[in-house]
Amino acid sequence: MKLSFKKNKVWVGIIIIILIFILLNLFQSQVKGFFYSFSVPIQKPLWRAGENISDFLFSVFTIGKLRNQAEELEFKNQDLIYQISLLSELKEENIILRQALDLELEKEFRLEMAQIIGKDISQEFILINKGAEQGILKDMPVITEQKVLIGRVKEIYNDFSKVMLIFHKESSFDAKIQREEEKDVSGIVKGTGSQGLTLDLIKDEVFEQDIVLTSALGNIFPEGLLVGRIRAIKKSDVETFQQAEIDPAFNISNTNKVFIILEF
Amino acid sequence: MIKKLIISIVIIYFLALVQTSFMVHFSFWGMVPNVFLLFIIIWNVIEKPENSLGLYNAILAGFFSDIFSTRFIGFNVLIFLAIAIILKFLFKRYVRIPFIKEA
């Protein structure tokens, strides 16, 4: 009798725990929002401290590599200065032509700035300090200052949102590689997890170091956002389409502020 | 026990903040060290197999890592609890660490 009472007590305990977890999941956004609201003041300085320490350690361990990179960048810089001078001439010409054709300038995006305050353990989600109250909606694109695509809003709380990074396995969108004289090369960028990206379903030839941009197809992201550069091409004689690995254009650990595109 | 649990809640909550905002900057070959996992393993290895605080800590660590992740609440609780139970079982049955027994 005593034993069955003890056994019943254990079962009641288990059932209560299961019920608590069901309730927690039913009110998941409120529960998580509650914890995020008082964690932010501690998370902000922690994020900054982590960023500073990792930057310091990185520079200590890679000083030799950095020296070579500096030399390379100086060389590239000279090349870019030359290109800028060419482009500024083209810009002036463009302004004159626009005025002549009476075209409206392209509508800029309506943006909302947000700060990153945390990253998911899975490494493929970030937490930002803007949410439903600031007009953030699900699936809005998130970019950096340099118009580099980071991901899109996946979960929204009152003052916070979770952004699914483009590395996530569920992330896929249309992209293109611009060609000056030929037709643009189109493909689909897919996240592979572990901070990896691939460009899939490529029909035409692509080369290493080609720049991958978002395309307006599918209407998920605005056109022309930078995704990354082609790192390696996987060629197969059997497959109709080619695949390529992409080096993403951003490093989330070095990013503090992001922009959410409210309208495009 | 309640006092110990409250201290555990504070420590594990702080670990959650460290994991999501600090440790994410230190990735090695694309992987970030999981402080929760380290905490659970170390605690359950050091603790006497008869004590149960290690199991409660596993539940708390799972709960806080679920709060700061996108998965349903309970996912990491199950994983961490399973790890703690396995460690407890192994250390009770097969492993004897002399200095822990003396303590």
Question: What's this, in brief?
Answer:
With 264 residues, chain A is α+β, with helices and mostly antiparallel strands.
Fold and architecture overview:
The complex is a heterodimer of chains A (264) and B (103). Chain A is 37% helix and 30% strand. Chain A is an alpha+beta fold and 264 residues long. The model of chain A has no long low-confidence stretch (mean pLDDT 82). With 103 residues, chain B is mainly α. Chain B has one domain. Helix content of chain B is 70%, strand content 0%. Chain B contains five helices and no strands. The longest helix of chain B has 21 residues. The two termini of chain B are 18 Å apart. Classes of the chains: A alpha+beta (264), B mainly alpha (103). The interface between A and B is medium-sized, with 36 and 26 residues.
Average pLDDT rating of chain B? 85
Low-confidence stretches of chain A: none
Q: How many DSSP-defined strands of chain B?
A: 0
Measure the end-to-end span of chain B: 18 Å
Largest interface: A-B, 36 and 26 residues
Largest sheet of chain A: 6 strands, antiparallel, barrel
How is the secondary structure organized here?
The complex is a heterodimer of chains A (264) and B (103).
Chain A: H1 2-26, H2 28-61, H3 63-101, E1 110-119, E2 125-128, E3 141-143, E4 149-156, E5 161-165, E6 172-177, E7 185-193, E8 196-202, E9 211-214, E10 226-234, E11 242-248, E12 257-263
Antiparallel strand pairs in A: 1-2, 1-12, 2-5, 3-4, 3-12, 4-5, 6-7, 6-9, 7-8, 8-11, 9-10, 10-11
Chain B: H1 2-22, H2 35-46, H3 53-67, H4 75-93, H5 98-102
Using brief descriptors, characterize the structure shown.
heterodimer, A: 6-stranded antiparallel barrel, B: 103 residues, mainly alpha
